[in-house]
Specification:
- The chain is mostly helical.
- It has one domain (4-54).
- It has helices spanning 22-41, 46-54; strands at residues 4-6, 12-14.
- Strands 1-2 form a two-stranded antiparallel ribbon.
- The longest helix has 20 residues, at 22-41.
- 0% of the residues are buried.
- Residues 29-56 form the Anti-sigma factor NepR domain.
Protein backbone atom coordinates (compact mmCIF):
# COMPACT_ATOMS: atom_id res chain seq x y z
CA UNK A 1 0.00 0.00 0.00
CA UNK A 2 3.05 2.24 0.11
CA UNK A 3 2.84 4.98 -2.50
CA UNK A 4 -0.96 4.79 -2.69
CA UNK A 5 -3.40 7.53 -1.76
CA UNK A 6 -6.71 6.55 -0.24
CA UNK A 7 -9.71 8.65 -1.22
CA UNK A 8 -13.02 8.95 0.62
CA UNK A 9 -14.53 6.32 -1.70
CA UNK A 10 -11.82 3.79 -0.72
CA UNK A 11 -10.37 3.94 -4.23
CA UNK A 12 -6.60 3.87 -4.49
CA UNK A 13 -4.44 5.61 -7.04
CA UNK A 14 -0.70 5.94 -7.55
CA UNK A 15 0.91 9.31 -7.06
CA UNK A 16 3.37 10.55 -9.68
CA UNK A 17 5.99 11.17 -6.98
CA UNK A 18 5.87 7.56 -5.77
CA UNK A 19 8.12 6.42 -8.63
CA UNK A 20 11.75 6.58 -7.44
CA UNK A 21 14.29 8.46 -9.51
CA UNK A 22 17.24 6.08 -9.46
CA UNK A 23 19.83 8.43 -11.00
CA UNK A 24 19.15 11.23 -8.52
CA UNK A 25 19.17 8.81 -5.58
CA UNK A 26 22.46 7.32 -6.74
CA UNK A 27 24.03 10.77 -7.13
CA UNK A 28 22.80 11.88 -3.71
CA UNK A 29 24.13 8.73 -2.08
CA UNK A 30 27.49 9.16 -3.75
CA UNK A 31 27.71 12.80 -2.64
CA UNK A 32 26.88 11.85 0.95
CA UNK A 33 29.49 9.07 0.97
CA UNK A 34 32.14 11.49 -0.35
CA UNK A 35 31.28 14.12 2.27
CA UNK A 36 31.40 11.50 5.02
CA UNK A 37 34.74 10.15 3.84
CA UNK A 38 36.25 13.65 3.71
CA UNK A 39 35.10 14.24 7.27
CA UNK A 40 36.56 10.93 8.47
CA UNK A 41 39.86 11.68 6.74
CA UNK A 42 40.23 15.14 8.36
CA UNK A 43 43.07 15.50 10.84
CA UNK A 44 41.97 16.15 14.41
CA UNK A 45 43.38 19.54 15.47
CA UNK A 46 46.08 19.45 18.14
CA UNK A 47 44.01 21.77 20.35
CA UNK A 48 41.18 19.23 20.35
CA UNK A 49 43.56 16.38 21.15
CA UNK A 50 44.97 18.43 24.06
CA UNK A 51 41.49 19.04 25.44
CA UNK A 52 40.58 15.37 25.10
CA UNK A 53 43.76 14.30 26.90
CA UNK A 54 42.78 16.49 29.86
CA UNK A 55 39.60 14.43 30.30
CA UNK A 56 41.59 11.30 31.19
Amino acid sequence: MQGDILSLGNKTKKTPSSTPVKGVEKDAGSALRQAYQKTVDEKIPDEMLDLLSKLD
